[in-house]
Every structure is written in C-alpha cells, then in structure tokens.
Design goal:
It contains 43 helices and 10 strands. It is mainly alpha-helical.
Length: 877
C-alpha cells in the first residue's frame, strides 16, 4: 500500500534535517530464524569463542550498546521495513531500545501478517501509534497514473522514441502544454484493477506498456485492448495461492468467474468448508448488498490473475453452471446480463429473444459493446427485426455507421412502430455516418407519409427537425418542433425528441433560458434509436455553454464522461471530453483544455465519428492557437478544412479558430476579417449563438466594431453572457473611460467562472489605464488578470492577453507589424500579408524600434515578451 515508500521518505526527511541519527533496518522474509539478523549489517564483529554459539543475552547487550553508540549523543530513530518479518531477538531489541533508551521508531508492516510478540507490546503498551495505511482514493490514483506515464513519456522522448512535444509560442518562447495527456479509459482501468494500491498501480502501468495495452497514440496515452496483471503481480498472487488445496482453488475460481455471487447461490455450487478457509486467508470477502450477503475475491488483481489462469473450457463450464444456478435461484431480473453473457461464452442453447432482451438492457445501461455482442448472437440465431434493430442501434452507438446500414439493409418494417424505428435509425446513420442530409430527410419524410399513427408521424418529423438543427438550420428546427409539441396525445418518444430538438434550436437562436425551462419538463425515453435520449443531454449542455453557465456545463459533461468511460462508450467519451475541453478553455486552463481536446480527437474515430471529430478538432485548434502553438494549430485546421469547404456551418467555427491562429502569428487585421466574415454568415442563417461567438472573438481581439450589433442582440438574447459581452464591446468603443469599465467587465466574467475572458478584459483594462497615464490602476488590472489565470508560470500569456499587453505606445498597425516580424516573417512577407508596401513595413518597424528602445529586428521578440510579461506577472497586493 506504499508503506515502504512512506517509511523511506520519512527517514530521508529526518536525515536531511539533521535532527536525529537514522538507523534503517529490514526484516528478512526469507530466513527470520537468524538471531539479530536485521541488526547484523549495522554493527562490527562482536566476537565469540570458535565452535560455540554466542550467548543470546551477551549478543542483546552488545547489539544494544553498538546501536546506541551510533547516535553519537544525538536522538536516534529506527526505521524498520517489513517489521512483521523480524526475528524474535531483533524484535526484542527494538522493544528495549524504544522502552528503555528513548529511541524513536517508525515501522512498516503488513496488517494481516502475524507480528512478533515484542512488537505487539509496542502498541499494546502505548509506546507507538499504529496508523493504518489505506489505498489512495480515485483522484489520487489518477494523479499517480498521470505522473508515472509522464515520466515514462519523457524517458521515451529523451531516447528519441516519441515525437517532440510543445512548440515555439506566439512571441518566440517554448512552452509545454499537457504534452502527454492520459485517456480516461486508461485511468479508469488502472483504478478499477488497483483499487488505489500504489504498488499495483505502478506494476499495472509497467505491464501495460510492455504488452502494448497502454500506448501513446494520437498524442494521448490510450488503452489498446484490455489491461491485465503482468508477470510481477502474477508472481505475487501465485505465491499467496501456493498453499491452497485443490478444493479451495476450485472454489476461488468459481468466485473469480462469477463474483459478486449471492451467498445463497454460491452455496449451491461450493461447500461451506473451502469458503471458510478462503475467508480466513483473506482471499474472499463477504459483504451485504440489497439485503443479502454476496461473495467476491478480496481484490480485483486477485480476480484477474485467477480468472486468467483458468482454461477456456473450464471457464465456460463454470459460467454455464453459474447461469443455471442463478436462474434456478430466480436471479434473472437483476443479473440478466451476467447470466446471458455466461451462456453466450459457454455456448449454451439460448432462445434468441432472451439475447435480444439482454441486448436492450445493456443498451439502456449504455454498455454498447456488450449490447452489440448479445444482439449479434440473437441475430445469428434468428435474424428477426427486433434483433436487427438492436444490433443496428449498437453499431450506431459505437460509431459503426456503415456496419449499421449494412445490417439494416432494405428493411422497412411492417407496422407503424417498425416503420418508424427503421426510418429513424436509417436517417441517423445516413446523416451522422455519411453526411447525407438529403438522403436522411427523404427517408424520414417518405416513412412519415406511410405510417398512420399520429405519434409515430410526429416522431419522424421531430427527428428530421433535429437533423436540420445539427446541419446548421436552427430556425427551421424551432419552427417545426414548436408545431409538433402542440399536437395532442404524443407518445413519450415523440414528445421527448421534439422538446430536445426545440431546446437545441432555441439555444442556437439565443433563447437559452427557454431551452432549459423546456428541458426540465422533458420525459426520458429508452429503447431503439436511443441516441435520441442523448439529445436532451446534448441540448442541456449546449444551453449551459451558450448562456455562460460554465460550472453547470462542467458537472453535466463530467457525469456523461464518467459513464462513457465506465462502459467503453468511445463516442460518449469523445464528445464529453470535448465539452470539458471548452470548460477548461473558458476557465483559462489551457494545458487542461489541450489535453481534453486531444483525448476527444484521439477517441473519436476519423471514419466512424467524422462529424463529431470535426467539432473536437476545431476546439483543439482554437485552444492550441490561444496558447501560441502555431504549428500544431495549423495542422488541426488543415485536417478540418475539407469538411469546412463543404459545410457553411462548419466553416463558421473554422474561421473563428483560424482567426486565433492568425492573431497568434500577429496578423490582427486578418484575424478580425475572419471573425467578422463568420459573424455575417451566421447572421444570414439566423444562427444567433454562432454570430455572438464570432463577435465576441472580435471583442476579445480588441475590436469595438461589434458594439452596436451586440447591444441589439442583448435586448432579445437570453442568459447572462450576452449582457457581459455587449458591455465589453461598449467599453472598447469608449476609450476615454475604458479602463474602469473594462475592470467591471473582467469582474462580471469572473463571476460567471469565465476566467479566460476575464483575464483578457483585465489585460485590456491594463492597457487602457496605461494609455491614460494611470500606472497604479494599470498594475491592479494586470494583477487581477494574473489571478484569473490562476498561474504564475513564466510561459507567455494566452494570445488575447499577449495582444492586449503589447506596449501601449505602439499604434495598432505598428503592433501588428511588430508581432509578425517577431514571428520571423521577412518585410516582403509582412507586406504581402497586410497589403502594404515593403517601404511602409520598414517605416513601421523603425518607429517600433524607437518606441521600444531597441536597435534591430533580432531584439524585437525579446522586447515584446518582456513588455507583455511585466504586466502579466504583476503580483496581487
């Protein structure tokens, strides 16, 4: 449990302080019969007569004197590792040194191991304090995993086995932005197997890296297959199991395959005696759950090792036997999935409808891999429509859109319900898998004409409205969904889908408060095409994001992420990781944002989840650009550009991310042109939320041009964010009084938890105060921005701050030319990019040199960094 590491750390701390002499001892597990074996390396030869063993009392007295002499008049501390393995004489000596000589002792020992009686006297008589060292909690385990994999990655990079990480920042300085993020599935797998045991955690990571089940791929530590105990842990477990009888081993195997097993079921398979022996040896534990006792192995590592040691035929036989006994005991309700999995693995005869029922239950629990296995088994036995639809839905959830279309084939269904289910699944697969909006809408419309049931028709129309919303036509979605929810006697699935679609449309058109109010009254739904049940969660997250409710968005996204990781739902993991990336970005945690976006892009398959991956990649591009990681941001944008060229909706977000890249390179005019183009495009298609995001980017870049439009939008758009953004733009439009107003805007952003925007506004306030000659106010604004960033690192500030904190004596054009020159662009390249003459560029540079007190282009990058950093790193107070 890390007890040895704690003891060693304490010994090292005492030694460094010089407060005491430290004597380190180790109990011998191999031969504890050697008298005073633990002390033998510490003292000289005590002598004795040849052929005659020394008298124990003589040895005790001389060892005691020899140890005390090592103190040289200072306090003495014994640090004893594996104290339970001390021989009796060494234990007696430890007791005497502590009880009679005032020696302090720190001992590390296993709580379940029998200890020498002398050591038991120590805590029985109150001479020492006994502290149980428990496992790490989940958060600490994940932190340990991250640290260990970071060290491994640095080692690999030093050996040239990994690509270089980090890049030159926007002002010429290198920074490291979470270069080795750990995928949630890796951390979750290690936590579930180790249960917080530090030794197990380290060994699992080492074994995973050796086997390739943990690998660094697409910029993220990923899980490649299943994680299991390596040879080191197997040896530890095998040593502990070596004393088991054949009957006890067989009982342990049954518990490992089936646990947790209700005791009433287990006793139908295993006799009482071996179970008692396994409990006494600490290999099996019993716990109460849902009103009855259940048995399981004492640790997941034990389960993994024992389970892996069982032959495939025997494991199948155990599974079949357990399935029979669970069914005989009436456990098919709560344990249906386990029973069906055992029957599937064991090759037992099962009716296909039972597999279908289990597949649908797995789908409700979002365990899509298991759902796909069970549905495949049912479909292979009998290709019924119910089995087909369950398998198609599992393919859909796993991002296997083409596989889903292949299984669905030409199936249309017969009754209204079947026709509607087939059409909804086909439409979702066509749009999200192939990007075929027209094909999807045609499928849904044709089926809506075919069905006679009004609720089924409404459901099909609601799904079609949802696809229009996703395709960048939110106003159409609002109109269609509003009409649908007014119809009487809607089914649960029709009502839930229509309200989720309407909520998304309302959010995209700026009515986030109405969207959230609508969602609070939306019924839940399950069953086939269950992607629709996730639309409500997506709509809620969208409303939180667009309203600036970052904490609510974080809670919702984290909950979705945790469930997705638990059930290996890669689409859910990727989309929720992207949402958490936006949260981290707005909270000014750029390294964390980059890590989340990298996990999202690495998790979402570029073929099966292309549309979703595009959104995550654009988030990554924006985060990298804001952090000044120019080359990496450009690479991400290049990946998305072909999709953006085919979609106006995607192009708007692409332009915003590209604008931040241009700003990171110093091309402010180009950046502002891009965001204004994105805003106009969004305005034409009534995508109010996208328009606000583009205009907000312009304001963050220092432009007051959007002030009038934002003031107009603030009169109709709901939520607190629009009001702060409009105030921000208005402040920039009034330069004579901008400083105090921008300070107030920074506070408003901070109150919403939007620390990045608050820091940018504070930096702009700092610049305004400097221009007005108010140095003390400028320092206070800079300190506020520094606090909002939550970091005192010496790396360059985010791009928005870097632009705001460039020397105020530079004009806007001089600042732009200087930033481009600092990036290494030649005068001709700058002239071409800014549509200026080379002579004009050289004139601007000459003025910049004079104002900054430098003599050449080579000093420019350092001068700009120093100016920005001086303001950025002002300490509060």
């Amino acid at each position: 449990m890390g007890k040895t590491a704690l003891a060693r750390a304490l010994a090292a701390e005492i030694s460094r302080s010089g407060a005491a002499e430290v004597v380190a001892l180790v109990g011998s597990a191999t031969d504890p019969s050697i008298s005073f074996g633990a002390f033998a390396p510490l003292v000289p030869d005590l002598g004795g007569k040849p052929g005659r063993p020394p008298d124990p009392l003589y040895l005790l007295q001389n060892f005691r004197s020899a140890v005390l002499r090592r103190a040289k008049g200072r306090p003495l501390v014994l640090v004893v590792d594996d104290a339970h393995s001390l021989d009796p004489n060494s234990a007696t000596l430890v007791l005497q040194l502590v009880a009679f000589d005032g020696v302090k002792v720190v001992m590390a020992m296993e709580s379940h191991a029998p200890a020498p009686s002398a050591l038991r006297s120590l805590w029985k008589d109150g001479l020492v304090e006994r502290v149980e060292v428990g496992p790490l909690d989940r958060e600490a385990t994940v932190e340990l995993v991250t640290c260990l994999l970071h060290e491994a990655a640095e080692h690999l990079e030093a050996m040239g086995a990994m690509g270089a990480v980090g890049s030159v920042g926007s002002l010429g300085r290198r920074e490291s932005l979470a270069p080795y993020p750990v995928g949630g599935e890796v951390a979750d797998a290690v936590w579930r197997l180790s249960e917080g045991n530090p030794l197990y955690t380290r060994e699992l990571l080492a074994a995973g890296r050796r086997s390739g089940s943990i690998c660094f791929r697409d910029g993220v530590w990923r899980l490649n297959g299943s994680l299991g105990a390596g040879s080191g842990l197997q040896e530890l477990v095998d040593e502990r199991l070596s004393s088991l009888t054949e009957v006890q081993r067989a009982a342990l195997e049954i518990v490992a395959v089936g646990g947790p097993i209700p005791l009433r079921v287990l006793l139908r398979v295993v006799d009482n005696e071996p179970l008692e022996a396994l409990q006494l040896s600490g290999l099996v534990t019993f716990e109460w759950s849902q009103g009855e006792q259940s048995a399981r192995t004492a640790h997941p590592i034990l389960t993994d090792v024992v389970h892996g040691s069982i032959s495939v035929p025997r494991r199948a036989a155990i599974g079949r036997r357990l399935a029979d006994e669970f069914e005989a005991a009436g456990c098919l309700g709560s344990d249906l999935l386990r029973v069906m999995t055992w029957r599937l693995d064991g090759g037992a005869d099962v009716r296909p409808e039972e597999f279908v029922r289990a597949a649908l239950l797995a789908a409700e629990r979002q365990d899509w891999r298991l759902s796909a296995r069970l549905a495949t088994a049912a479909f292979d036995l009998e290709p019924s429509l119910e089995a087909r639809l369950a398998l198609v839905d599992a393919h859909r959830a796993l991002g296997r859109f083409r596989d889903g279309l292949a299984v669905l084939g030409r199936e249309q269904g017969t009754g209204d319900d079947e026709i509607a289910k087939c059409a909804v699944l086909r439409g979702i697969l066509l749009y999200f898998g192939l990007g075929d909006l027209d094909g999807a809408l045609t499928t849904l419309a044709d089926s809506a004409k075919t069905v006679g049931n009004g609720s089924d028709q409404a459901w099909l129309e609601a799904v079609a409205a949802g696809l229009r919303a996703f395709a960048g036509r939110p106003a159409d979605a609002v109109e269609l969904a509003s009409e649908i929810i007014r119809r009487p006697d809607l089914s649960t699935r029709a009502e839930a889908t229509a309200k989720a679609v309407l909520s998304m449309g309302l959010s995209w058109t700026g009515r986030t408060e109405q969207a959230l109010e609508l969602l609070d009254g939306t019924p839940s739904m399950s069953g086939n095409a269950s992607s629709l049940s996730a639309w409500a969660a997506m709509a809620r997250g969208l409303a939180y994001k667009l309203a600036g409710r970052v904490e609510s968005m974080q809670r919702l996204s984290q909950a979705r992420y945790d469930v997705a990781v638990q059930y290996h739902d890669e689409i859910g993991q990727g989309t929720s990781a992207a949402a958490l990336g936006w949260v981290a970005l707005e909270q000014a945690c750029l390294p964390r944002a980059v890590a989340w976006f990298r996990e999202a892009t690495a998790t979402l398959d570029p073929v099966h989840s292309a549309a979703l991956r595009v959104e995550a990649t654009l988030g990554l591009a924006e985060a990298l650009a804001l952090a000044g990681q120019v080359d990496a941001a450009r690479q991400a944008l290049d990946e998305v550009r072909p999709v953006a060229d085919r979609s106006d909706f995607v192009m708007q977000d692409w332009c915003i991310a590209a604008a931040w890249l241009a700003a990171a390179q110093g091309a402010l005019t180009e950046a502002l042109g891009m965001v204004h183009h994105a805003a106009e495009a969004a305005r034409r298609t009534e995508q109010v939320a996208s328009e606000i995001r583009a205009l907000h980017a312009a304001v963050r870049l220092g432009s007051a041009a959007p002030a009038a439009r934002l003031a107009t939008l603030a009169q109709t758009v709901e939520g607190p964010l629009i009001r702060v953004v409009a105030a921000h733009a208005t402040a920039l439009a009034e330069p004579d009084f901008a400083g105090p107003t921008l300070d107030a805007v920074a506070e408003s952003y901070a109150d919403l938890g939007l620390h990045l925007y608050g820091a940018e506004a504070a930096a702009q306030a700092c610049r305004a105060h400097q221009a007005a000659g108010h140095s003390r106010r400028a320092a206070a604004s800079a300190a506020r921005g520094h606090i909002l960033l939550g970091s005192s690192d010496e790396g360059p500030p985010p791009v928005g701050l870097a632009l705001a904190l460039t020397p105020p004596e530079l004009t806007r054009r001089e600042r732009e030319v200087a930033l481009l020159a600092a990036r290494g662009l030649a005068s001709q390249a700058i002239a071409t990019r800014l549509c200026l003459s080379v002579r004009t560029v050289e004139t601007h540079l000459a003025r910049v040199y004079t104002k900054l007190g430098i003599g050449s282009r080579s000093e420019l990058a350092v001068a700009l960094v120093s100016a920005a950093s001086r303001a950025h790193q002002v300490e509060a107070g």
